[in-house]
Amino acid sequence: MDESRTGEGSAAERPDEAAVAALVRVAREWAAAIVADDPVRIAGFMADEWVIVSGSGVTSKERFVALVASGELSHSAMELVTAPRVRFHGDTAVLTARMTNTAHYRGERHDADEWTTDVFVRRDGRWVCVLSHITPAA
Fold first, then answer.
1. 32-69 residues labelled b (16+ CB within 10 A) or e (exposed)
2. CA 63 to chain centre
3. What is the dihedral sign for C-alpha 18, 80, 98, 102?
4. Cα separations in angstroms, 53 against 27, 38, 41, 97, 115
5. For residue range 47-84, what is the model confidence (pLDDT) as tens digits?
6. To the nearest whole number, what is the mean pLDDT of the chain?
7. What is the pTM of this model?
8. How many C-beta atoms lie closer than 10 Å to residue 91's C-beta?
């Protein structure tokens, strides 16, 4: 099949399996930190300039971590529904997947089924997220 028609790019643009597995492992460890409600571990996966973009607007790393630390925001579940799509662009990686999660915000439960896109950059030999974007799944 002609890859130019699939939107998947050339073989040179597709990462090797080990690189994909390493980034997916980072994303899974970050999700585990979120479910553990561990603000220090959560923050370790985020660049200082990280933000999350959602239907309610833009939330900074400081705000997100503070909500977790205060107990106002917690998560009891976070699971991948689809295999992540990973693309590398030098020291930048984009990971897109469908996820479900159960969050508790100020005592109210919120179940979500979302498409997520995380942009990671490699700094000091490790991947940190600079941007997360979530969109409700149809």
1. ebbbebebeebbebbbeebbbeeeeeebebeebbebbe
2. 17
3. negative
4. 17, 21, 21, 15, 12
5. 999 999 999 999 999 999 999 999 999 999 999 999 99
6. 91
7. 0.87
8. 10
